[in-house]
Design a protein that fits this description.
The protein is an all-alpha fold and 264 residues long. Among the domains are: 93 residues; 75 residues, Alpha Horseshoe (Serine Threonine Protein Phosphatase 5, Tetratricopeptide repeat), CATH 1.25.40.10. Helix content is 71%, strand content 0%. The longest helix is centred in the middle third of the chain and has 28 residues. The radius of gyration is 26 Å and the shape is elongated.
Length: 264
């Protein structure tokens, strides 16, 4: 799901700059012609710079593997901790989201109180967010994205990532509301009016600030009329008229109520 992707990359870029190998000897990394096999033992400076060079060249999976090697070959160095996050970031850029999540989770399990913990949580949340699928498909990942964004905000409400997480939560909720609408319309087409009422009520009660609310109120009016529950239909139409008076949804709901009353 690529909504506000540029803002996401910008925020990740801020954190990336803080993870650079300041003062490291020689940005050149390995000499020309040197074996690039990631399992060859190398000093930490050379290995970390090789990973950064691969990242700069947009060889993201190679970069991630090299950052993993920094941690494997030099587990007690200061760069091992930084490489865990850089590995997660490189996997994210490679669209290898499960690997990115795993790497960030490993960082949090080893360094739960580290100052970069908010960034690790943000990477996990964004990894889930980027996997959100169309409303016609299962929304398990969407729920995981929502939970991860919520955890970031609860634990680090004042971090520089929290504002973007709040925006994404609004977008995720709108997406989940869209899924409920999709199912509700399906039940309407089948004439299963009680089932459709439950779905449209979920949108109104749980996602009332979503862009789907006016349509949900209109379709709730339709479903109540089909069930013969006219008083409830009038209530839905009244809420629709009070909050969205100039919409086609309200015009349609109003016309339905008028036709039903004329029939007695």
């Amino acid at each position: 799901m690529r909504v506000s992707a540029l803002r996401t990359i910008a925020l990740i870029g801020i954190a990336l700059s803080s993870l650079s190998l300041a003062g490291c000897a020689g940005r050149g990394g390995m000499k020309k012609g040197q074996d690039s096999n990631r399992y060859v033992a190398r000093d930490v400076d050379t290995l970390y710079n090789a990973a950064r060079d691969a990242l700069d060249k947009k060889q993201y999976r190679m970069a991630a593997a090299l950052f993993d090697e920094v941690e494997r070959q030099h587990p007690y160095s200061v760069w091992a901790r930084r490489s865990e996050l850089m590995s997660s970031f490189a996997y994210y850029l490679a669209h290898s989201y499960p690997e990115s999540i795993q790497s960030a989770q490993r960082f949090l399990s080893i360094h739960p109180g580290n100052r970069d913990a908010p960034y690790a949580l943000y990477l996990i949340a964004v990894d889930y967010y980027e996997q959100i699928s169309d409303v016609t498909r299962d929304q398990k990942i969407t729920g995981q994205a929502l939970d991860a964004m919520g955890e970031l905000i609860r634990r680090y409400p004042d971090s520089k990532y929290a504002a973007d997480a709040r925006l994404k939560i609004d977008l995720i909720n709108d997406h989940l509301a869209g899924k409920e609408m999709e199912i509700g319309r399906f039940y309407q087409r089948r004439g299963e009016w009680l089932a459709s009422v439950i779905r449209f009520r979920t949108v109104i009660d749980k996602f009332q600030s979503s862009s789907h609310t006016p349509e949900a109120l209109m379709r709730l009016t339709e479903s109540y009329i089909a069930l013969g529950v006219v008083d409830e239909a009038k209530k839905s139409a009244a809420v629709l008229g009070a909050n969205y008076p100039g919409t086609d949804y309200y015009k349609h709901a109003y016309d339905l109520i008028q036709r039903r009353q004329r029939k007695g």
